Amino acid sequence: MEPKHLKKLIVPKQPSLVMTTSHYYKAVMMAYGISHFYAFEVEEDVHDILSIVPDGCVDFLFYCSKDYPYASIIGTRLKASPMIGKPGDYFFGIRFMPGKVILPDTVNPNELVEGEAALMEFMKAEQVYDKIIQSRDFRAQIQAFLNFYVNCNQEKLEHLEDRNLGNYLIDEITRRAGNVKIEELGELTGYSVRYVNKVFKENMGISPKTYCKIARFQTVLNSLKWEEDEKDLLAIAMNAGYYDQSHMMKDFRKYTNMTPVRYIKSLEEAEYKNRLIILG
């Protein structure tokens, strides 16, 4: 039986970033391969290290510092990983949907897994780069980036959703929230498992099996919101496609460095909902 969430879209989530600030701004895009834009300033009283969890996505991240500004292309992590940031730092980011980012020709998806590349080389128009780095106006930053990104990639964007094998594999795993065997993908496409793995890794930098695990984890992450969810961990695990609760707990610890119960408590302690500001 397919999980109930089959038709739902996985929304890539980075909860630690929200909990480092009193105002985490988010603007959902769902166009041009972009999931959403976000911006935040690290709180002065934050003592925990910023961390990012696996989400299968690529981010363009701008560190808008007056002294040492920079911009990076950040690939997905395979486990909870630290992120550089100190109190007072302001970040503006773009999170792309899995497999939907248009990268510079010099950047290979494999190189971005648990790594990053300089974005300045990609942002050849320094005026646009400076406009984003020097601003604290979230909407203005979004518009500046969109104008640049769309204008520079018009032809590639027209083919972003082409029904080639790479797109099909990514979309099918995402649509099923990771609940599909690689052998089944081979049967659906008429290709060997070996070829499916090869094409997928060329597009995502990770294996389809790894992305399936990340997609299931992100489904759980989006399901854990309230204290009451502590009582429903088995149901949440089963709905996400795990065989049992212990399997889900093992992945969750690996990807967040905490248990689901501790994660729920951290949301409550940080008053997570009050920090997240979604713009229309």
Relative strand content? 15-25%
Which of globular, elongated, flat, extended, rod-shaped describes the shape?
globular
The value of Rg in angstroms is 19 Å
Could you report the average pLDDT, rounded to the nearest whole number? 88
Report the count of strand segments.
9
Can you tell me the residue ranges where pLDDT is under 50 for at least 5 consecutive residues? 1-8
Which strands sit side by side, in order, in the main sheet? 8-5-4-7-2-1-9
From the N-terminal CA to the C-terminal CA, the straight-line distance is: 36 Å
Structural category is alpha+beta
- Report on the biggest sheet: 7 strands, mixed
Order of helices and strands: HEEEEEEEHEHHHHHHHHHHHE
Task: Characterize the structure shown.
- The protein is of the alpha+beta class and 280 residues long.
- The chain has two domains: 15-158; 161-265, Homeodomain-like (Arc Repressor Mutant, subunit A, Orthogonal Bundle).
- Helices cover 41% and strands 16% of the residues.
- The protein contains 13 helices and nine strands.
- The strands form two sheets. The protein has a seven-stranded mixed beta sheet. The protein has a two-stranded antiparallel sheet with strand order 3-6.
- α6 (165-175) runs parallel beside α9 and α7 (182-189) crosses α8.
- The protein is globular, with a radius of gyration of 19 Å.
- It starts with 14 loop residues before the first helix and ends with a strand.
- The model is unreliable at 1-8 (pLDDT under 50).
Distinctive features:
9 strands, globular, disordered N terminus, alpha+beta, seven-stranded mixed beta sheet, Arc Repressor Mutant, subunit A, two-stranded antiparallel sheet, 280 residues
